[in-house]
Amino acid sequence: MTNFGFQFQLERYTGTDRDSDLPVSIQEWKRLAREKLNDEAWWYIEGSAGSGDTYSENEERFRHYRVRPRYCRNVEKSNIGCNFLGRERSSPFIIAPLGALSIIERNADVMGAMAAESLDIPYCLSTVSSNSIEEIAQSAPRAEKWFQLYPGKDRDIMKSFVRRAERAGFSAIVVTVDTTMLGWRENDLRNAYLPFLQGHGIANYVTDPVFRKRLAVEPEKDMKSAIMEWLGIYVNPAFDWNYFDEIRSWTSLPLLVKGITGVG
């Protein structure tokens, strides 16, 4: 991976790049995405919580970071590898959990896992993915897979998710702690758009035996009722640190915490 940039440049300059029509900057990717996506999907992805103040400030703060070059060092065999969770890795990158990706492409979760597999980096599947745990395991059997867990109201469902992930060969559980309420997202409210109401991002629920027991009719026959049931259990405002003791009892896999913004 450390020679990727150099190799990419050579292929682009010599006209041997098979993906020569792909953008080379994030801004170009965003512009093309805006052209392809409808307003609801675009603002769900591009938008952020509230009026976007935190998002804007994060970007601004990040711009202040600079790389300090140290010259006259042999970088012919440079190494950006790291050791994490007891394993040597070729790079410090992962594909982070992204929910409701089917608003872009029906099998986007599968595609992400396969991309991670090809790059030999971990893939973290969202609780609210549009492809199930088992689909991801089958599609990318050699990928290192982590499962991101939203601590919802029904602990039996959460336990079932963790057990399913473990059986499917996932190697870590990533617990999100900053989503105990449905976020106030002005763009989505303006568009009256919540993708889950259209069946996006609930694949792990409708394929889960514990969740299905809560339903009077199987979701294949009455998806609307399944979605409304999901809305009632998706988040848990009562979640606190004591919850981790129970999660720990469900699995021996490493537990990671996602969403920490302070240690106080």
TrEMBL record:
Keywords: Flavoprotein, FMN, Oxidoreductase. InterPro entries: Aldolase_TIM, FMN-dep_DH, FMN_HAD. The lineage of its organism: Archaea, Methanobacteriati, Thermoplasmatota, Thermoplasmata, Candidatus Sysuiplasmatales. Its cofactor is FMN. SUPFAM superfamilies: FMN-linked oxidoreductases. PROSITE patterns: FMN_HYDROXY_ACID_DH_2 (PS51349). This is Alpha-hydroxy-acid oxidizing protein. Residues 18-264 form the FMN hydroxy acid dehydrogenase domain. One of its GO terms (molecular function) is oxidoreductase activity. The keyword Manganese does not apply. Pfam families: FMN_dh (PF01070).
